[in-house]
Inverse folding.
């Protein structure tokens, strides 16, 4: 399986880089993983609704340019469906079983995802009703994808 994580914003914190590097290395035994970092749109702290929409649209264009037609797209969004680790494992297992070997997870910038990206998504996934920094979400996502592969292989992992 080929897993692509498309994310808006640069990762700066050393501790997050180390955690992501560790899980990416572990995931290498199960899948090819590629993390695509896209620049976030520079914007002032206070934005009007139309300015927010413009920022999301520009970031959305960058995201969509990295998605191929054969990607199964899972957008991380607060309004998405919450799943347990076992349910995420089942989703990835079914995708592999039915020949969907290219999966792209999308993590938006601080303002979220554009409508076009959400429309392109095959499914929307929520990790919580809470808002998390996108840098931290990247670590959580990589860990959960790793956990999903361990679950699907019947290998032990913390509960």
């Amino acid at each position: 399986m080929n897993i692509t994580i498309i994310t808006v914003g640069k990762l700066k914190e050393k501790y997050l880089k180390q955690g992501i590097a560790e899980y990416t290395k572990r995931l290498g035994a199960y899948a090819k993983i590629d993390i695509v970092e896209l620049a976030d749109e520079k914007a002032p702290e206070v934005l009007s609704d139309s300015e927010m929409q413009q920022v999301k649209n520009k970031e959305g264009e960058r995201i969509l340019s990295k998605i191929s037609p054969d990607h199964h797209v899972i957008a991380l969004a607060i309004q998405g469906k919450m799943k347990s680790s076992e349910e995420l494992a089942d989703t990835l297992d079914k995708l592999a079983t039915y020949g969907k070997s290219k999966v792209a997870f999308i993590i938006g910038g601080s303002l979220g995802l554009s409508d076009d990206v959400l429309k392109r998504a095959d499914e929307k996934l929520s990790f919580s009703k809470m808002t998390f920094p996108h840098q931290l979400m990247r670590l959580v996502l990589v860990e959960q994808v790793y956990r999903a592969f361990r679950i699907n292989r019947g290998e032990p992992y913390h509960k």
About this structure: The first strand starts at residue 2 and ends at 8. The domain at 2-152 is CATH 3.40.1280.10 (Alpha/beta knot).
